[in-house]
């Protein structure tokens, strides 16, 4: 019996016993009250009369009536740019030590403030995730193993009075001292900015580590594992890390990667989804019998939900100021919502860009269903990324292929709109047959798509390409590794540029 591991597991059990899940509505009201009280003397708090809101009979309703909805551009142009210029007490008390550089799927670069209060919030959320491991029936010796956290470089960019980097790099640069003995690849290797060099060093050092869990975006974890396996001339990663038992995923849906991911293992892992963004740690999977994640309700983030309908969104994919907006208490299960957050980093009614669905109201569990700007609806298709992922899983089974990446756009052909798909696979298939099967699947599962196919959407084409083409494009035009994600939907001009890039690779 692993004595230390058993002690850790018992400590987690005790922590879970003395800390129960909060009552959702009460916890969220308390979070909002705390946010408003702490920020009431900031420039933002004075402009929107946080003191007056706090004196209202219904603080939530008064907050919603007084404070406008913000997307990144509005928040930055009106407020956050002052922080980068060195001003203090703008949207949150004090100055600014860190900015998270967005590594999402949009082309716009974003600099999002990360306060000390937010770093504390992320650490507390991490402890909640660790505490929930008691539900996954892991053996005691698991808690003695090392954790591979594959994120962005911890070598942050130094500016005049602050540092910049991706949120995973900022978080890793601020891990507690007691945790550093468990953390791999370690600060030295994690500081390497070049992705290929960093992965090569990991592959060299891998035999000396005893990894029990992995954490990171699926595509980059998979690329790292392949390099480690190849460099060390083994068959699976378990030949090197026999005690590997857990993979904590995040950033994108894991299911499209499962088949190829598990080909690198000797046995399946325990999979745990998390929802860590540049704006905060929002949710984590707390139990094994679901793929949904529980919102973290009592840790510095207030959530709001906007029904994802045409009436609530403008032509640029932004929430309208007169949109119907609900608290968690008012929101319903099995409805697509645009998520708004207010946080201890001074984001207020902030449109994070994700769409979510509440799958269990009692447990406050959600599933990410897509991105507001990665929702294909040029000619009425109304396709969400969640529906696209489900369709691709069906295509994997039907054509016996591994599909790790894909992108779609509505493009014009002979004056009419068609949907054109580029699909990253491990082998060639018949493009015409693939497009036909994909089209049929989407018609069966999405009535709006089926109607569009009979009217304004005049065709579907697909081109199956090596998945490496996606990663080469990411390296050349965005960056490789860390938290970088491949877009699922592109505008027509961007898609045409991507097509031309793929043609050059051939």
From TrEMBL:
One of its GO terms (cellular component) is cytoplasm. Residues 295-362 form the GH3 middle domain. Pfam families: GH3, GH3_C, GH3_M. GO terms for molecular function: acid-amino acid ligase activity. Residues 387-492 form the GH3 C-terminal domain. Signal peptide: none annotated. It comes from the Bacteria. This is GH3 auxin-responsive promoter.
């Amino acid at each position: 019996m692993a004595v230390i591991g058993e002690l850790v597991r018992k400590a987690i059990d005790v922590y879970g016993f003395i800390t129960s899940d909060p009552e959702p509505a009460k916890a969220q009201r308390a979070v909002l009250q705390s946010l408003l009280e702490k920020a009431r003397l900031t420039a933002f708090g004075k402009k929107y009369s946080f003191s007056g809101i706090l004196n209202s009979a219904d603080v939530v309703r008064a907050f919603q009536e007084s404070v406008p909805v913000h997307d990144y551009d509005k928040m930055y142009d009106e407020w956050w740019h002052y922080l980068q210029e060195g001003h203090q007490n703008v949207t949150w008390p004090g100055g600014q030590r860190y900015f998270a550089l967005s590594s999402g799927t949009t082309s716009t670069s974003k600099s999002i403030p990360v306060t000390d209060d937010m770093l504390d919030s992320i650490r507390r959320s991490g402890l909640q995730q660790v505490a929930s491991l008691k539900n996954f029936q892991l053996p005691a010796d698991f808690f003695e193993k090392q954790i591979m956290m594959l994120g962005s470089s911890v070598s942050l960019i130094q500016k005049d009075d602050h540092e910049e980097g991706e949120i995973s790099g900022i978080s890793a640069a601020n891990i507690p001292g007691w945790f550093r003995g468990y953390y791999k690849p370690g600060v030295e290797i994690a500081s390497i900015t070049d992705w290929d060099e960093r992965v090569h060093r990991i592959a060299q050092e891998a035999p000396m580590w005893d990894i029990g869990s992995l954490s990171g975006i699926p595509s980059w974890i998979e690329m790292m594992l392949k390099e480690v396996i190849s460099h060390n001339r083994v068959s699976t990663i378990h030949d090197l890390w026999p005690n590997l038992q857990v993979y904590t995923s995040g950033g994108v849906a894991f299911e499209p990667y499962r088949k190829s991911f598990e080909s690198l293992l000797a046995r399946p892992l325990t999979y745990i989804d998390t929802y860590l963004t540049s704006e905060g740690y929002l949710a984590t999977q707390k139990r094994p019998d679901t793929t949904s994640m529980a919102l973290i309700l009592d840790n510095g983030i207030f959530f709001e939900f906007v029904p994802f309908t045409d009436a609530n969104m403008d032509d640029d994919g932004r929430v309208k100021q007169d949109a119907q907006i609900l608290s968690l208490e008012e929101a319903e299960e099995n409805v697509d919502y645009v998520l708004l957050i207010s946080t201890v980093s001074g984001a207020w009614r902030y449109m994070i860009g994700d769409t979510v669905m509440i799958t269990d109201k009692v447990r406050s569990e959600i599933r990410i269903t897509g991105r507001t700007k990665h929702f294909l609806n040029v000619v009425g298709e109304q396709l969400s990324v969640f529906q696209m992922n489900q369709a691709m899983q069906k295509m994997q089974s039907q054509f016996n292929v591994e599909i790790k990446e894909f992108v779609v756009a509505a493009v014009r052909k002979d004056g009419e709109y068609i949907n054109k798909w580029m699909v990253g696979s491990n082998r060639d298939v018949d493009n015409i047959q693939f497009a036909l099967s994909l089209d049929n699947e989407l018609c069966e599962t999405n009535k709006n798509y089926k109607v569009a196919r009979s009217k304004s959407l005049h065709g579907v084409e697909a081109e199956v390409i090596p998945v490496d083409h996606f990663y080469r494009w990411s390296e050349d035009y965005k960056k490789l590794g860390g938290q970088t994600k491949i877009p699922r939907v592109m505008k027509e001009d961007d898609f045409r540029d991507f097509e031309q890039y793929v043609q050059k690779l051939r």
